[in-house]
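Inverse folding, one chain.
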């Protein structure tokens, strides 16, 4: 569904992504791993179009989108949940969700969102900034889901979140995977979680893909070499 080829991305003079490649098949969960600062978020931002590459190609369903602006990529079916959530603190939960609808031009929030995250329904009128960190993460995922993306980019959704809410987020990822209508690119540090939800993995080191494969090839050796701090 999404193909990234030889992607090179720099901040000013400092090159961060080096000939990165990636494939996300429709309906599959692909995990992206790597130590802090290796370029995972930079790759996510390049896929949604917040950063534009020096070279390489990004293709969605066979159509090149390398230079397309983020709003067009959102309209073509890519949803993005940024690292650190970035919900709008002074808008209510409902308003945050309505903003997500801008991507698809939909008119109302689909009720499935509240099946996935019941807590959001009980807090529709509350300001986003008054939610707990875990609730904000659920809101950020809900905001990305309201437009019905075909590919969801999730950048460290479990970072700083308590175990009970991590469980709920994992359940949502599993449910999406079982339905098979949406692909997910998940940046995740917890190995057990990756092994539980992923179909395949990529590991980055110093801005390049260092290891990849089906998730059963995520061996202890790979973990020791590229992920242990
Ligand atoms: N706006 C920016 N300007 C300059 N350098 C940046 C910018 N954003 C990130 N970098 C640098 O690019 C490199 C990759 O950062 P990135 O955020 O992609 O890493 P990451 O793998 O997501 O790390 P983490 O696991 O900590 O989230 C780092 O060296 C970082 O300091
Ligand atoms: Mg990051």
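Residues assigned per position:
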């Amino acid at each position: 569904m999404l193909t990234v080829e030889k992607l090179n991305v720099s901040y000013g003079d400092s090159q961060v992504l080096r000939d990165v490649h990636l494939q996300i098949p429709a309906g599959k969960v692909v995990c992206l791993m790597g130590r802090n600062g290796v370029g995972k978020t930079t790759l996510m931002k390049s896929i949604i179009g917040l950063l534009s590459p020096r070279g390489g190609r990004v293709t969605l369903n066979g159509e090149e989108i390398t230079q397309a602006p983020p709003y067009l990529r959102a309209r073509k079916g890519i949803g993005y949940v940024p690292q650190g959530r970035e919900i709008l603190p002074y808008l209510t939960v409902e308003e945050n969700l309505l903003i997500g609808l801008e991507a698809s031009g939909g008119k109302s929030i689909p009720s499935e969102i509240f099946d996935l995250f019941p807590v959001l329904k009980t807090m529709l009128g509350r300001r986003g900034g008054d939610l707990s960190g875990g609730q904000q993460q659920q809101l950020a995922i809900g905001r990305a889901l309201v437009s019905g993306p075909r590919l969801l980019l999730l950048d460290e959704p479990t970072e700083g979140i308590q175990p009970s809410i991590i469980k709920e987020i994992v359940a949502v990822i599993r449910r999406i995977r079982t339905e098979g209508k949406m692909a997910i690119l998940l940046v995740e540090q917890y190995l057990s979680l990756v092994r539980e939800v992923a179909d395949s993995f990529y590991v980055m080191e110093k801005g390049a893909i260092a290891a990849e494969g089906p998730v059963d090839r995520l061996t202890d050796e790979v973990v020791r070499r590229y992920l242990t701090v």
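The two ends are 33 Å apart (CA to CA). The chain is about 35% helix and 25% strand.
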